[in-house]
Amino acid sequence: MAYSSNKQHITLTAPQLMARLDKVVADIIRFNDAKKAFDLGRLLAEKLEKKKSEVARSPEIYDFYKKIIIKLYFIALPLLDNSDIIDIFKNYFTWQFRLPDYDILAKLEAKLITTIVIEERDEFKNSLRQTLLGNKEIITSKAEIKTIRDWLKNYNANTGAGTTDSLRKNQYLANLSNNKLLSGHDIKKLQTLINVYEMCKLSSFTPQGFEERVPIVIDGKLYIFNHGVLEQVKPSKQVERIMRATESSPPINPTAENSHTLQQLAGQYPQGSLERRAVEEEIKKITN
User: Most buried residue, 123, 149, 228, 266, by CB count within 10 Å?
Assistant: First the structure.
């Protein structure tokens, strides 16, 4: 569905517009259209700011637009400024659970990949982590622990505040099922929270925290370098086409910055290992 971008003809209190917006936003969410979500969210936010005094007389109308804008911003998350994402993590993190099948990890990763300088990625992830540690939103209303801040305090107390190995994290998540005050939906929300928190703890200089998924051909076989793990792709005609393209095309963003990052990644694998060979192959593409 289309929407008008003519700011002069938008009257926020018009019932026809509000009904129309409900349908348009539902379609944007269903198709996960980040660009339309970004454009419409910005348009509505600007208009809401200009008409603040008019809308203030109708709190229910203000809440209607606030909810729509936040939903749109979640869909448009990879296109938002860092400051806007930090604001979402501070005040509206739990609102994502109102969206069907929403994957905040994929959205956040898509945002991070657009940041070329790895140090800047790590700074942003650290800001998000600190923001979550101070978030007072209620994520589990019926449990003894209710807020995001207090759940993360509990998590750190049980697993440590530093880098948490997957075994300890998974054990903590498994133990949540023993809490009779947590519903299945509550547990899923906490799993999402902890997975995002752990993602923000990992440096992009580490194999596990490196966001890019790189297709690499080794000994005639196609692999995907994914968070420090080489995943072999099963042979098919489509895979053969990807292999030919991978062998003949230059890497994405072939810069000295990427080469330096990949050299650091390579050094974290044993000499002669398949993972190290894969990273070294990518370095060769850049240097050539």
Answer: 266
